[in-house]
Fold each of these.
Amino acid sequence: MVDAAEAAFPAEACGLIIGRGKGQLIRVTRVVPAENLLAETPDRFELDPATRIAVEKDLRDSGTKDRIIGHYHSHTDGTAEPSATDRAMAFEPEMAWLIVGVLDGQAIQTLGHRMDEKRGNFRPVPLRTPKAK
């Protein structure tokens, strides 16, 4: 995600997060980059729906327990907090939103969020990375 965010700068990067688990305990198994259909528009992203359809078909056909657990995108102002546009576009509250803050082409922060439907705002989701073996 970080590599994609830095490579897309000054546009926003976006993609899907695949994994398994429930509630707060989910494990990411892979990340699928997607074309940003709004790459020419500053500070906006729209994930190519063809990518999502292909991933959903692949997951269904594979018989795996993996599923789409979230989306990622980057912010080109260095912040990794959800914007007002992010809040307005959060149609799937069960999905995690990971945001990579990029400043001058360098990722400086990555934060996880999930929409709290009752409050109409995002709440933080803790991220843990596995220890290197």
Amino acid sequence: MLQRLGFPSLGSHRRFVTAIGVDAVGSGVFMPVSMLYFLAVTPLSLVQVGAAISAASLVALPAGPAIGALVDRLGAKRVLLAGNAMQAAGFVAYLFVESFAAVLVWTVLVTVGRTAFWGSYGNIVAAIAQPGERERWFGFLGALRNVGFALGGLASGVAIAIGTDLAFATVVAVNAASYVLAFCLLLAVPDVHPAGHAHLPGTWATVLRDRPYRLLVVAQVGYSLPMMVLNFALPVYVVTLLGLPGWITGVVFTVNCAMVGLGQGLVVTGLTGRLRYRVLLAAQAAFAASYLVFLGAASLPVVLASVVVVLGTVVYTLDELMGGPVLGALAADASPEHLRGRYLSMIQLAWNLSSTVAPLLFAWLLGAGTSPLWLVMLVVAAAASLVAVRLGSVLAQAGQPVTNRAEPVAA
């Protein structure tokens, strides 16, 4: 079944894949109710909850580079396990929070744990996948996480409908349990840290002097910032500015998850042979087209606007299907194996910066009306397209074709 959808054979990696799926379901349960949970179980206001979460993200931001160095020194598996343990502990502590300080402290722990997870995750995927299969593996695991988020989101919807403290506490407990289960599954995963890395040359200075890779990090920002639109901007735009029914946002997320879950492998298969930087260009074109569709919905009646928003989501998701696997594989292929932890932590830093900036930036732009957000995002797409073109000429791996079978990739 997986092969028919264009996904790789799991082979001996079933425990790792299962752990990623369990983690995604647990995260999907909590993400939609994160703000609501703290509002329900603490005396904090919405502004205080938002401030605690944003402050935690800022405090945890420097953890990314430090975790990259730990991955190179200790191995990705140990860091991944530590990240799972930290998140499990943080969510257990959430069951007892009552103050701003408590929410801040435990959210810092959870955020650092999540950073440890993502800072080591790419290294493990790069190690278990042959160079010629990396787009398939990154695409498959991304699709799996999307399906997990969707299933978790359905469960969280039940908790929101019930609305009691016990229902919200159950969501938190389930998420904590998912991290514990994932931790146990990952114990059996072989360590992918090759012996002898400590004696190979290279430091942070090596990473920072790598100009082509720095440009790749900029390209990652050009992808990860727009990826925040679906979670942070679109629900507000649809419900508040367009005045559409709230259930439209549920349809939007369902369409996105279904397309990624069922179509990711098929898209990667269809991209085989296309040059990577051109795929990134096509992805930015899909982003730009979706922005124009969303903008056009503002001048339409409710029923037609609802249809157009869903259509815009389909176009928007095409970028996720094209850009995510290619950027993941490109980041792994372009990094030296013994410094991959540090290199991939720069990619994670791009994601963290985007997730820190996006809520405030999108809120400010949406507060100015229906047009500013989409016009600014069109500028971002144009700039990211220029970066992709430049990347194709300075980074050798960006000029290579997408592959979906195990074969050597030139250094």
